[in-house]
Amino acid sequence: MMGTEDKTLFCFCHWGGKNKVLPDGSTSYVGGITDQIIVKTGIKYNDFVNAVFDRLGVDPSDKVLQFTVKFDRAQLIRLRDQEGVNTLLQFNDGFAHVYASSSEKEPNSEVAPNMATTRISTTEVEAVSLGSAEEEQVSADTPIPAPSNQWITDGTPDAAANWSELLVGEGQAFENADAFRLAVFKFSIANRFHYRILHNKPRYISIHCAADGCPWKVSAGIEKKSQNVSIRKFVDSHSHPPLDSSQLKPRIRMKWLGGIMQEDILGSPDCLPRKVCEDAEKNLAIKLTYRQAWSVKQRIREAINEKSGESYKLIPWLCNRLIEAMPGTIATWSCTEENRFKRLFVSYDCSIRGFDVGCRPLIFVDVYNLNGLHNSSFIVASALDADNEMYPLSYGILLSMNEEDLLWFLEKLKLVVQNREVIVVSGTSLPFLSSLDKMFGDENHSFCFHCVKENFNKFIDGNTAFKVQGRGKEIALKYLSDIAYARTLDSYNEALGKICSFRRELYDWVIASQPERWSNALFRKPRWDHLNCKSTDSLNSFIEEEKFVHVLELMEAYHEKLYMLLQSNKLKIEQWNLPIGPRVAEKIFENQKAGDNLAVTVLSDIEFKLQELQGREEVVNLKLWTCTCLEWQMTGIPCSHACNAITMTSMNIYQYVADWYKRETQEHIYAEVMDELAKFDIPHPDDIISSASSGNDVVLCPLSPHVKRPPGRPRKEPKGLQVETVKRPIRCSKCGGVGHNKRTKCSSVAQ
């Protein structure tokens, strides 16, 4: 036997659940409890066994241990002696998995229901938090069938573990008849049999097993006092074995299916209908067509909108609570003449103060579609803190993205920035262009370069007059980036000349796209090298999970995430080892490394001339904090030329970094952070209605909006800027002339 090298393993100890084999061959432990021990080379077998069971708090009698190795996580190996412990240590790296189970049942198997006589009463283990467990209980008078992995891996419905105990016995009550019918359906899926409804009357329901001669049946009726539906008779035995996956083909109402799959679809709201088809067949043994899966998604979406209808009434209460918790917070909403919700704006007092005392006058505005909120839009305004991290400033929910609603949002945003002149970076969709220009001035409105590049891509792909593909398209995009990030007019004209020589059509597009709004060389206001409104990728993930919830949950989720973000960033300040943040320090390090190869000529105590390898010369003035490359002036961070010059003087380079990036600024930004939202006394929507004044007084709670679906196929993306299509001119293949083909003018001349 090979000797085991000295090593330490983090050992996961599992008990009470089941090891499920996934389609890709990997395993996932479901249910039970999971704990851990640290195992080192040289541990004895008895010590290892005692450590595992002591950690799990389980009696080791009548129990067995099994483990896996790193090259096959699906295969369980019996741990019997010291050789097994050595094998576990030798063929695992970093961590290992050990499974404890009763000696009658292996951990990677489940007990299949035996329907030949009487159904086994079992309680399946569900996934619970660490430290709690539900163990399987099997009746003592029923023999235990042999373990079968086929129950998990052959495509049989995975919902069986949760639905096999939905019908308990006589006297069990259900809220209504639909709830009882749905429970019977789930029960049949879990226990793999078909049924038929013999009596389906308003006050009495009788259901039998569909197999001939099978005694299984259940009947239920309405209780006189409570009006609940309760089981009157339940014979829970079958005279046939359970159906296999090929025979189990249940039928279900679409509204039931939407209710069953709602939680799974909301967990991954962007899933395609084909994924819904796969989940329905895997979990319910139901084969759906693409249209049926699409219908299920639509029903769930309608259910979300119906649920959100009541939540709109609580918007005033939540806005008032935010203002009470943090005086100075702006939380306002408006509605239509019919008292239907129209738009919402929220900006917290701590965000307003942090932006005013420390953030650069630079705001990014972006819009996201809320698929679950009546097709409304979520508009976000954010800034940057001293370490170039995202700093959420305000948000709004707009029912429509027209110019009126955008102007309303921007007016509220203007109250947040007060009299401070700010630069706004936004997308290039048409509503933004006019609204932002009116509110902040066109000289302060910059186009998001990411959106410009997307429009450039569409222009290339959508034109038939020329073809630019593969390497040629990469070159065109590189020239566009050079135009955007060029700092001097010379470098801008040089990049513009390159794209003109590459294709004249691309040059014409760049000129028509208003480069003075997105190019560094032409935009005259500082943007600190942040040309994209999506420069912080965390903004997408910040709201991605909340795109399908209703309005009140969205407000609460945003508050919670903002609270965690501000608290986390405030704690990170204590970890700063330099006067500047980690991101800015990394940028300076890169500039210092790039400046090592520059040739330096000392002009004076404060002026230095630096020559690059390409022969270009730049002059740095340490007194004025300037460089002729303009990078230092535009970013506030010493460029590679300045870093080399500062090194020559033996000065502290951090003294030449703008105050926007200093530790003191970051401390001012996060000096005040928000508290968690108190929701213990949140009222019920019906209570708000009952307390509303009557007569001629205005009702101070908005109703859910009425939204009609517009005709035609919805747009996937808003209409962009300057996406034109150039038609290819008609050319005659006979004479080579333009404007006709050989069947028109040439054919008439020949005649």
TrEMBL record:
SMART domains the UniProt entry points to: ZnF_PMZ (SM00575)
GO function terms (MF aspect): zinc ion binding
Keywords of the record: Metal-binding, Zinc, Zinc-finger
Ranges for domain SWIM-type: 618-650
PANTHER family: POLYPROTEIN, PUTATIVE-RELATED, SWIM-TYPE DOMAIN-CONTAINING PROTEIN
Stated name of the protein: SWIM-type domain-containing protein
